[in-house]
Write a structure and sequence with these properties.
This protein is an alpha+beta fold. It contains 10 helices and 16 strands. The chain folds into 2 domains: about 70 residues, no CATH class; about 180 residues, Glucose Permease (Domain IIA) (Distorted Sandwich). An 8-stranded antiparallel β-sheet has the order 11-7-8-9-13-5-2-15. The chain has a 3-stranded antiparallel β-sheet with strand order 1-16-14. It has a 3-stranded antiparallel β-sheet with strand order 6-12-10, with no helix packed on it. Helix 1 crosses helix 2. About 40% of the residues are buried.
């Protein structure tokens, strides 16, 4: 389970040959599956109170019910999603730490020293070509974030394309040493939005379990409605936006210009439609 304060452990695992060997062993013996089994059992309920205290999680806005397991608690759903309803406002699909990267005209972008082709994420070279010159928005979720995500605009959601993969960390030290988004488990979805054109959303699984659950496909959707959730620590969303469709909120762009991530909340205004 990842935590922003676990930098020392991540540096050891990804910046040290012994640590990298340990990761290979963990993945080989399927340790994540064992952890997932335990977290779905009633024996894991004792973790809930400690987790809430450790990460200072507010339970305001959630149903007051008993949780049958840690998994049941982690996947809890808010009573109501709050979001910016202005049609020209591009909203964050989730809670998380946002970073943004330009996509070259050759549909390539770089994150922490690793280069990615858009086709690495979407597994469709023709579709990937539509995003040359656009931007990739990366949302890294932390343990205290809400792990459901919503639709960023009215539109139509197509079917989900799931790709099995590994479960590396998505913290910066891992991104600098491993092409995480090319190797990790992920699910990609094309969403035809009313105000921002076609947008590709990719959910990326992460250390240690990385379940991805999308609830709706091949139907019209509304902005702010729940799209899906991460099950047990899956923790990154990548949005691919075409060139000339959206510009970032100036306040957020200012933070990102310093080279740091910007904390955002699900439904928050993070960008604006570029009028043609």
């Amino acid at each position: 389970m990842e935590r922003d304060g676990s930098n020392a452990a991540m540096r050891f695992l990804y910046g040290n040959p012994v640590g990298r060997a340990m990761i290979k062993v963990m993945l080989a013996v399927k340790a994540p599956k064992v952890m997932a089994w335990y977290l779905h059992t009633p024996f894991s309920k004792g973790m809930i109170r400690r987790y809430i205290r450790k990460y200072n999680i507010s339970m305001k806005g959630y149903p007051r019910i008993g949780y049958r397991s840690f998994s049941d608690f982690f996947e809890r759903r808010k009573i109501k999603n709050s979001f910016d309803p202005e049609p020209n406002h591009f909203i964050s699909p989730c809670d998380g730490h946002l970073s943004a990267y330009p996509i070259s005209t050759e549909s390539v972008f770089a994150i922490k020293g690793s280069s990615y082709r858009v086709s690495d994420l979407v597994d469709d070279a023709i579709l990937a070509g539509h995003f040359g010159g656009g931007q990739a928005l990366v949302f890294r979720l932390a343990p205290n974030d809400y792990h459901h995500y919503c639709f960023i605009d009215d539109g139509f959601v197509h079917d989900h394309q799931f790709k099995e993969g590994q479960l590396h960390s998505v913290q910066p030290i891992a991104l600098a040493n491993v092409p995480v988004f090319r190797l990790n488990r992920r699910c990609r979805t094309l969403i035809e939005t009313d105000n921002f054109g076609p947008v590709i959303q990719v959910e990326v699984g992460a250390l240690a379990v990385g379940g991805i659950v999308n609830e709706r496909e091949n139907e019209p959707v509304k902005k702010g409605e729940t799209m899906g959730r991460f099950s047990l620590m899956g923790s990154t969303i990548v949005l691919l936006v075409e060139k000339g469709r959206m510009e970032l909120n100036p306040a957020i762009a200012k933070v990102l210009a310093t080279g740091t991530e910007c904390p955002v909340k699900m439904g928050e205004w993070i960008g604006e439609k570029i009028e043609s």
